[in-house]
Amino acid sequence: MNTFERLEANVRSYCRSFPDVFVRAKGAQLFSQTGGAFVDFFAGAGALNYGHNNDYIKGRLIQYLEEDGISHGLDMYTSAKEAFLQTFESLILAPRALDYKVQFCGPTGANAVEAALKLARKVKGRSGIFAFMGGFHGMSLGALSATSNLFHREAAGVALHDVTFMPFPCGGPGADFDTIRYIDSILEDDHSGVSKPAAIIVETIQAEGGLNFAPVEWLKQLRALCDKHDILLIVDDIQVGCGRVGPFFSFEPAEIVPDLVVLSKSISGFGLPMSLVLFRRELDAWRPGEHTGTFRGNQLAFVGAKAALEYREEVLLEAETLRKGAWVERFLQEEIAPLSDRIAIRGAGLLWGVDVSAAGPHELSKGIATRCYELGLVIERVGRHDNVLKIMPPLTISDAELETGCRILKQAVSESLEKLGALEPALV
């Protein structure tokens, strides 16, 4: 029994799929203790959009440390926080005409979700929240109440209150259901038995839910619905924001302005814990200290976040992400989709899914991911029954590394289908 199995709790998860001991990482590659090298299509579950040990960001962090900069500051005023706020305003908020205030929360995205839900309830004086089937918002009790996965919900050990789940427009039972019309009708019906919520929380792209993309028109209708019924719209951009699909915010293509936006994961630029809530200025109803957290003042995260935003501009990362994403789409459609007519491909930017739910039993996706790992590719499974292989490399991945990873994925899918006897005869 190794040290981890002997001392670490059974709750550990990713290490069961990627069992090597990793000692070094750079860019889009991970290196194990035994000398193995892996292309990383996982990117720290979305926390490493700028890659492992990005030199630009690392240099700023090292300089800050060498200058004995403040390392921990709670919510005190510091030069690192000021510099981040000024950069975030000038590079992200102002160009998009977003007049948001910024709240720094505890270190995880779940804490930012907690803060957003609390603030919405405080502002509107209502306890209810609407969320969507397939959504994932975190594991703490408040965030978990808005997370639909029954496996995670059952671990709470208590009833999870005050959230009503609605069908999402794709990826589940809501695909052929007019959710907007349904919500509108129950809010208009004085006998529906459903009270008006304080807020509706939504992921424009359900990443953990299986790469389910809300249509642009649907998002516009959702914004209009919230306006009509005096409901706050919260967009959870924790995993799919920070440029993952091209634009900094995932909701930009829909040309909507959420009332609140939740960010975490890659906002720090270097995998350092950081989360924040953006909200319309008039919603700032907090009293001092009503939502606190010891690590809401991670100064190194502020330094990394500022450097990441500057780096993003310098290397034209949005355009590069869209260019690489177009290449991935072509590869998946031309090289992997033809392996079986029961494979579905969907995605945008550098977030893509290979859905094998219709191509075989639930074990198929696990077999593919395991074979990928054997061949040198780290890739995650998501969605209902974990049937979707999620391609989520660092946005800085080189073209060669991207192609290597995709070709490993193709080989793994091909071999796994062949074992099932599911390949077309001409392709066997």
TrEMBL record:
SUPFAM superfamilies: PLP-dependent transferases (SSF53383). Its EC number is 2.6.1.76. GO terms for molecular function: diaminobutyrate-2-oxoglutarate transaminase activity. Pathway: Amine and polyamine biosynthesis; ectoine biosynthesis; L-ectoine from L-aspartate 4-semialdehyde: step 1/3. The keyword Transferase applies. Belongs to the class-III pyridoxal-phosphate-dependent aminotransferase family. NCBIfam families: dat (TIGR00709), ectoine_ectB (TIGR02407), PRK09264.1 (NF006733). This is Diaminobutyrate--2-oxoglutarate transaminase. It comes from Paenibacillus chartarius. The lineage of its organism: Bacteria, Bacillati, Bacillota, Bacilli, Bacillales. The gene is ectB.
